[in-house]
Amino acid sequence: MIIEEISLALQKGKANDVKALVQQALAEGYTPKDILEKGLIQGMNVIGGKFKRNEVFVPEVLVAARAMNAGQEILRPVLVKSGIKPIGKAVICTVQGDLHDIGKNLVKMMLEGQAIACVDLGVDVPAEKVIAAIKEYEPDLLCLSALLTTTMIMQKEIIEAVNKAGLRNRVKIMVGGAPVTEKFALEIKADGYAPDAASAAELAVQLIGEMHV
Ligand code: B1M
Questions:
Q1: Which atom of ligand 1 is nearest to the CA of 97?
Q2: What is the DSSP letter of 171?
């Protein structure tokens, strides 16, 4: 089945094959959701398990990540409808010390799919840069991604910095990433937590709605 082929090509880090297979799957009528969840994310999860068990190492994970991004780029135009008036604006980033961007990119893509304009600050982003971006872009929503237990604490530090800068009532803050939990989000006084990109998009729409009442 083509969805399995996508997963296998991703695991082998074959970016060009992933691109071609995603294109083919779309042409055959598979939904972007199935391609994403059962093909790309599933493949990345297999690599994640092998990485954890020391069966593959950073270089293999990197090429798989590149193949993941290549697949996402094919899906982007299908998921992100162009020409629709944005319902709000989000600033999104992966926090300081953290270079993982696949989940952040997925969240961004899903938000854009809900007509939320996104300013992407990239990875390894310190609090000062976030504060500057809030002042410059005046977003409704700030989205902070963290994939390491050692960097999730940066989400707290950034929220505290936003408080200190007197900007907390001007922006809703959503946090996420594999080690992050609802409980942690509450503890650090984020406005919301989402476990995956699809629920992040739903929550984003809700939080932006709350900003506009
Ligand atoms: Co890293 N890494 N990594 N890694 N890596 C993990 C996260 C790890 C769990 C692997 C493991 O040991 N099992 C582990 C963290 C352990 C921990 O802290 N608990 C780990 C480690 C240890 C490291 C290094 C320290 C390894 C080393 O150098 N010795 C190093 C750290 C580098 C750094 O950041 N400073 C490192 C490096 C890397 C690569 C560069 C090789 C590569 C990243 C490439 C890239 O992103 N461009 C990489 C990868 C790919 C992974 C795994 C295998 C996959 C992560 C991923 O992309 N998943 C990962 C193992 C795993 O997760 N199974 C692992 C797919 C993605 C779709 O899921 O990012 O969880 P995820 O995003 C989801 C949700 O979390 C959520 O929605 C997304 C989609 O549904 N979400 C949000 C994410 N952000 C959100 C924000 C929201 C809401 C939802 O609101 C704002």
A1: 35
A2: -
Say if ligand 1 is within 6 A of residue 183 CB: no
Q: Is 176 in the pocket of ligand 1 (CB under 6 A)?
A: yes
For ligand 1, atom 78, the nearest C-alpha belongs to 103
Q: What is the pTM of this model?
A: 0.92
HEC secondary structure over 69-85: HHHHHHHHHHHCCCCCC
Helix axes 2-11, 42-52, angle to 10 degrees: 40
Residue of minimum CA distance from atom 75 in ligand 1: 177
pLDDT for position 200? 94
Longest dimension (CA), the chain: 53
Residues contacting residue 72 through CB under 8 Å, at least 6 positions apart: 36, 40, 102, 105, 106, 109
Q: Report pLDDT digits (tens) over 120-179.
A: 999 999 999 999 999 999 999 999 999 999 999 999 999 999 999 999 999 999 999 999
Report whether residue 63 contacts ligand 1, using a CB cutoff of 6 Å. Answer: no
